[in-house]
Give the backbone structure.
Amino acid sequence: MFGSHLSIAGGLERALEAAGELRCDCVQIFTRNQRQWRNPPIAPDEVARWKAGLAALSWDRPGPPRVVSHNSYLVNLASPEAGNRGRSIMAHRAELERCEALGIERCVIHPGAHLGTPPAKGPHDFDRPQSPDERAGLARIAAALDRVHRDLPGYRVKTLLETTVGSGTNLGFDFRHLASIREAVAEPDRVGFCFDTCHVTAAGWDMSSPAKAAKVLKHFDEVCGLEHLLAFHLNDSQGAVGSRLDRHAHIGLGTCGMACFRAICREARFASIPKILETPKEGDADQEPWDVVNLRRLRGLCRAPRASGVPSSVRRTRRSGGGAASGAAAGSRGRTAATGKRTPRSSRS
Ligand SMILES: [Zn+2]
Ligand SMILES: [Zn+2]
């Protein structure tokens, strides 16, 4: 399943309408303004419009979850400061309440920053023992999740801890961080993981060849368990491997390498897991919205192997550069229809 993070400007259901126009199989949204601490509850008429939007896409039928919420970047469950941690706990609880009201079963969250001594500069050392600050931060995250879970018994929505680049004191760049939080909570079934290809690459995991990509996924499986991997963010990375730079690039135009995306898109176990683009939307590529281009690139990887490592659509866009931003939806209709030529497998995934 392939989709994109889409805007809720004008109403939550607008993201679903846009997902339909872009022929997404799944979507990620912020359920509210992610730059504010305000946690407005969802009004009944909002829920009704949202449910109608799901029905219009036939996304209300039983099947794998197609909608992912992304919690606010302000939330820091690892904060050592009681006021900030308390606000973060309230915000995460309110987010899960909104998800439950909307029937959203996946909520991605950045694990948090411990705000102590940052790891040494340079590429992350994934073999070193965890520092006391890291351990304390991880324990605070697990305790915060326990508190939220106790307050909201029986919820269906799972919190997905996202891999991070590990800038500053942010936790989540080391797969062991994610695993240890899940192992520490009282209700581990309510916690899963989200794998961001840009973040993993910038954290220092090279996935740019088939062998390297397979090795990283195997390592993730050994540490975290692929059965708990419930969402992907498929972004290419502007920063080099190990740069700790969190800058998303269009698929095929960054340092992840097509082998990274191919390994994920071809893996049968990931077929029904949401794979979400968080790539820039500004400008058009060949008069098409970038999401259409990036979705086509990803879906193209599900098909038979190509001789070249770079799909022809990437080469074409590289030559032509950007393009006019106007008339995106209308101008793209013909090409969007071309994405309808999907194989049965890729339309499922
Ligand atoms: Zn992400
Ligand atoms: Zn990012």
Confidence is low (pLDDT under 50) at residues 315-349.
